[in-house]
What does this fold into?
Amino acid sequence: MIDSLLSDENKMFRDTVRKFAEEKIIPNVKTWEKVGQYPDEYYRHLSEMGFMGLLVPEEYGGAGGSLIDLAILCEEMGRAGVSIPLTHVSACCRAILNQGTEDQKRRYLPDMASGKKIGAYCQTEPNAGSDAGNMSSFAEKKNGYYLLNGRKVFISNGKIASVFVVLAKTEKNLPKPSKGIATFIVDRDTAGVSIGKTEDLMGRHCSSLDEIIFENVKVPAENLLIPAGSKGFKEMMIEFNSERCGNASFCVGFAQGAYDRTLRYCKERVQFGKPISEFQGIRWTLAEMAIKIQAARLLIYDALTKEKKGKIIAKEASMAKKFANEMAVWVCDQAIQLHGAYGYTADYEVERYYRDVRGWSMGGGTTQVCLNRIAHEILK
Ligand SMILES: Cc1cc2nc3c(=O)[nH]c(=O)nc-3n(C[C@H](O)[C@H](O)[C@H](O)COP(=O)(O)OP(=O)(O)OC[C@H]3O[C@@H](n4cnc5c(N)ncnc54)[C@H](O)[C@@H]3O)c2cc1C
It folds into this structure.
């Protein structure tokens, strides 16, 4: 942790999250993974703690937290070995908060902040991943509503969500296809919305990536969140930079959790008559792990400190995400290695950290997309 960059309130929040994780999460994660989903009480606890509405102002029923609080929450939860619905907390709530009309905010944010309704962010399609401009979901403007048709894939927590923030084109054949993309709020119980395939994932076994199908869905005109070609779309994309920092913070947390376990293990495990932490090869690996974790954390806090001062952090957030994603995979891999064969078993949990962290370099902009963004920013 970077205490020098945290306010007293930030530190109190960190201590609260850590205590919560130690009491309510760490003792249960292994069981939850075996069952293959978080129990309802998990989301209830997150809601009671105010985490689901962390970024929502108090006037809409949220906790009024900052992006630094979000980084703290993500790191501590990652460290405990769980994920929270980041797209709910960040992408969905923030899009409605920052781009929504007063009516949309009043209708959605209080229930989302209290955890009564979980949000999912629906952008990716079978043929439009990194290339979002190629999406084929289309919402045709009718009298008083939009007729939405499309298929979204890999949607985090799609099947437990009751509110979808959906990107779909309202205009076709534009010279710049992304200019035709609008954003809608769609209720799960609207006729024509259904859940398709749930992916069988390498890790993250407690939460899901789901296909969401929209078939002749009548979306009321008052649920248009961001019209195509408006400055709101660009603003939403800028706000997503900080979501990259949330993703990176999770990775720092997973790496820290795997490292903590490894440090403990290396001090306890005796081979050749002494703890393996006394072998130089092991000591250097532990030192490398500690350096990389702290370096990733510094990149995140550099980005968020600049964001707080009003800077657009496209470059900094991409740097933080790219570095943290790869760092965490490396750290978790080393954690398994330093545990020897025990690390390859479920008993010591580091194998779960490795599997869970691997997917974070895809969601929220892949490693290569981050590199493209960084290169764009430094070359422009
Ligand atoms: C854990 C997880 C959670 C997710 N959650 C959500 C969600 O909640 N909502 C949602 O809408 N989507 C979600 N996604 C989907 C995610 O946004 C996409 O996986 C991502 O945009 C990449 O798309 P793709 O998988 O189709 O890969 P592709 O875009 O097909 O890319 C394949 C490979 O080519 C590389 N590549 C692509 N374009 C370029 C380029 N121009 N230059 C260099 N390399 C390139 C990519 O980096 C990748 O390595 C999630 C994915 C994961 C794994």
Notes: The radius of gyration is 21 Å. Residues 242 and 317 are 7 Å apart (CA to CA). The chain has a mean pLDDT of 96.
